[in-house]
Amino acid sequence: MDTFKRKEAHQPHRPGKLGLFFNSFPEKWKWCFPVYASRQLHLKEYEICSSKVPAAFDGLRIAYASDVHYGALLGEARVTDLAQRLNALKADVIILGGDYGEDAKHSFLFLEKLPPLEAKLAVCGVVGNHDRAEGTAEELSAAMEKRGITPLVNSSLMLKINGKTLCICATDDVSHGNPKFSEVKAQAEDADFVIYVPHAPDALQAAKEEGAGVFYDLALCGHTHGGQVSLFGFAPYTASLYGNRYGNMFLSGHKEEDGAHVIISNGVGTTWMPLRLGAKAQYHLITLRRK
Ligand SMILES: [Fe+2]
Questions:
Q1: What residues are paired with 45 via a beta bridge?
Q2: Which domains does the chain have, with CATH numbers?
Q3: 130-162, pLDDT tens digit by residue?
Q4: Distance from Cα 60 to the centre of ligand 1, integer Å
Q5: Longest CA pairwise span in the chain (Å)
């Protein structure tokens, strides 16, 4: 089993003068490719095939978007565009992966500006380190509820079809909140299929350390931004509490780990600098398939 040493959490980055300078570049300036790429959003689809998917949930469509970072580097027009793209997927469930704003103030503004999201069964969301660094989980949860988004903060949402239960659950942010892994595990215990959606993949390691283990069938995470700048799949900097080796193991894409599927999104926005290289901005459509 891999061992990782946990570091102290840092305050999240905010854009500096250089980041704001890059952000002043016009959209059409393709010559500065990393700035141009940071503004191009791509749909990345996954099919998750598992014998544990109940027949009642075979074909369930989940739209997922994380790390919008509304603020100086990403404005209202791109929030509207994201909502239109998510609604166009006509998903059964929409999950927002946290880091709505570059800071807590902008997370509230994001929720105000966000056009209504439409899904057949549920729209839910978690809190990320940028939302949470200023201790606003309860207020943010209330603001989400006001917009028809079920907050998942050490809590779960149960979807029932034909007597079968699908659980979507999340802990509080692992670096700036109070994650309660055992409580969430207990909530998910009786479900037929469990989707765990913590903001950061560091929560997967922390859940093991806290004794909750791998209590989920599928994990959906953001936070990493795919490194924002990644060369041949390796990011020189990752925002992982467990260091760059763990950060690069859980940087981007789909993998199977300890019998569970794990998907890590590159996210929608950027932090610190509006630059992307080797880590396209992404939102997702994930379809569950019964094997
Ligand atoms: Fe983020």
A1: 285
A2: 42-290 (3.60.21.10)
A3: 999 887 889 999 999 999 999 999 999 999 999
A4: 26
A5: 55
